[in-house]
Amino acid sequence: xxxxxxxxxxxxxxxxxxxxxxxxxxxxxxxxxxxxxxxxxxxxxxxxxxxxxxxxxxxxxxxxxxxxxxxxxxxxxxxxxxxxxxxxxxxxxxxxxxxxxxxxxxxxxxxxxxxxxxxxxxxxxxxxxxxxxxxxxxxxxxxxxxxxxxxxxxxxxxxxxxxxxxxxxxxxxxxxx
Amino acid sequence: xxxxxxxxxxxxxxxxxxxxxxxxxxxxxxxxxxxxxxxxxxxxxxxxxxxxxxxxxxxxxxxxxxxxxxxxxxxxxxxxxxxxxxxxxxxxxxxxxxxxxxxxxxxxxxxxxxxxxxxxxxxxxxxxxxxxxxxxxxxxxxxxxxxxxxxxxxxxxxxxxxxxxxxxxxxxxxxxxxxxxxxxxxxxxxxxxxxxxxxxxxxxxxxxxxxxxxxxxxxxxxxxxxxxxxxxxxxxxxxxxxxxxxxxxxxxxxxxxxxxxxxxxxxxxxxxxxxxxxxxxxxxxxxxxxxxxxxxxxxxxxxxxxxxxxxxxxxxxxxxxxxxxxxxxxxxxxxxxxxxxxxxxxxxxxxxxxxxxxxxxxxxxxxxxxxxxxxxxxxxxxxxxxxxxxxxxxxxxxxxxxxxxxxxxxxxxxxxxxxxxxxxxxxxxxxxxxxxxxxxxxxxxxxxxxxxxxxxxxxxxxxxxxxxxxxxxxxxxxxxxxxxxxxxxxxxxxxxxxxxxxxxxxxxxxxxxxxxxxxxxxxxxxxxxxxxxxxxxxxx
Lengths: 177, 540
Prior knowledge:
heterodimer, A: mainly beta, five-stranded antiparallel sheet, four-stranded antiparallel sheet, 8% helix, B: alpha+beta, 13 helices, 49% helix
């Protein structure tokens, strides 16, 4: 008899907990936020809106150190540039060649993405062999009027939820066999 | 029958209704940020790039702050208009706003304006604290009646379910009084929302306040959620207390009683003490066992009079078995809540008014537990044995318990209106001193000086240094000041360098004393920023 009535507690608990909902946010983020180490990744930057209502005219992303073999995907209506930079110390590539320069920054410019529309900016990259590390891809979104800088990286003890303009992040998982 | 179920469903869906609009940004305000006006404005306007849903608007002055009631806020297309209180004295004011955009993303901030001369030695804004106290008395009185009726009705149903096993014959004489109790509690819950609206807006206690607009303000507070849950639970309790309730209704009624008693955890000091994952369940459990215990007292009294000794004895025995478990949960959750509220400071028990009230409450509770132990150890076995005056003595003891519970409810209602010690350290106004602080972020350091460190005009001087020790001028710099303890949203100001690595900001933004927070954000290069957080003590 007691057990039957104890079951009344369940829906009561459900009713109360159902009242707590989590809000969503509209930041520039990477579509896939986790990748196995040393994998060849297709990274997709999602741009859900412009700057305070103004259309986006350029998207620039800085590639973190140790992320190699970056190739941006061309986009109709946009001019794509891969900005190369010299490496502090040359490294050996997977085919034995010496690499002295890598792509440090990818830029899509000359286009126009209205605030009411959504678009994706794609590039290919090789995830470094560093399982457990969090990679940050800071993005500068230039608009007709104004700029959004998605460049805040969390300090110790904080997460991206504590910031208004967090940099898109990607966690490196253990290597897939 | 079906109509009632439909009504219940409608009430349920009303609890979950939330509007959401799209990601928005503030484009401008009237008056402009930082403007000085000759006369107090009749209304203010906030202009966004999209239609938004206002959550709250608060005007902050030197003596206090007042939430602008929803009745005075109108959302027209992309503009939010708010009527200002008519009696704004000369001085500086912050308007702190929170609105919601389409992705349920709250947009918040503050803007500053001054009436007459900006506050320096200017006269202060009206002290809104006196008006709050008048409402507080009404809130306390209403809360006592609400608690008593809620515990009576919800607890009575819990007693009927778990002690009487929903035996129709035993429950019958209890039905009508419990129904009256439930209706009284529902009325008090609705009234509590109106009173909370009055407390929050510190509305003038004359004929000018409108019950419906106060209801709207109170509804948006956590008390609104709590009252809605209480009303919902009691509605189910009322359905269960009908003539011939089906098994489904019996079950729904018990659920409703649990929801109503647990709703005490939806708002109030005790349930919101950090960490919430501990405080809220502890409060819910506390409310539940109290409802069971208190709600059983009057039915027991009634049954002792009406039932024959044998039946009465077995009822009392069943109750006291459950009561032991309830007492243990009561003591454990009560201790957890008390410790959380004291904020780890045991001396607060004697030094603060909250602590003293808590001591009184704990003493009466201890006496009550002693009485209950005496009942269980001596009087209940006497009743079982069939001793001649056992029923009368037990009834007398229960009446004493009811009296003690009444006192505890009064003290609890007073506790609800006193600031708990964990919040007091934040509320005491710091003394006004010029202060110098340093902070580091990502290898860069900032030295910040605030003068004079009291409400009114302040000069903030900032010196930035790069990791190599040289003065550093970032591409852009921005400062934000906010008063989190009073929920005042950040006031933002872009900074301009006066010399390499040197910035100066003269602001009237510190309109009231408190533990303000200064946040400095620097743009180091295109892709890198650093943020410094500095606590400032601004005195009166």
